[in-house]
Design brief:
By secondary structure, the protein is α+β, with helices and mostly antiparallel strands. Helix content is 21%, strand content 29%. It contains two helices and seven strands, in the order H-E-E-E-E-H-E-E-E. The strands form two sheets. It has a four-stranded mixed sheet, with helices on one face. It has a three-stranded antiparallel sheet with strand order 1-2-3, covered by helices on one side. The radius of gyration is 14 Å and the shape is globular.
């Protein structure tokens, strides 16, 4: 499985989504496994994550700590970050180096 296939698999696992149709080598459209929700398209790019911001997602969770642990189990890594006091987010990176945040949902 290539990098695009791994990214599609991680995206599906992290978001509880599935491919809308068979993914192409560099493109996939994801939809929720059940219920309503937005579609999400993933496109393979060739720029380096360390030098070019390619995308940024904020994932909102009712139990942020549990969600961070779940995503770490899927291959995410913690990113060193200077958090402001009272920050409601945790910065992680996927195995390709793309950063994203897990935000605690407001009550």
């Amino acid at each position: 499985m290539g990098r695009a296939g791994r990214a599609t698999g991680r995206g599906c696992a992290a978001l509880n989504y599935r491919p809308r149709e068979e993914p192409e080598a560099d493109w996939a459209v994801l939809v929720p496994r059940a219920g309503a929700g937005v579609q999400l398209a993933l496109k393979l790019v060739t720029s380096e994550a360390k030098t070019h911001r390619r995308h940024h997602l904020d994932l909102y969770a009712g139990n942020q700590a549990a969600e961070v642990e779940r995503l770490l189990g899927l291959g995410a890594e913690r990113v060193e970050w200077r958090y402001e006091p009272g920050a409601d987010y945790v910065v992680l990176a996927d195995p390709d180096g793309n950063r994203f945040c897990v935000v605690q949902k407001a009550e």
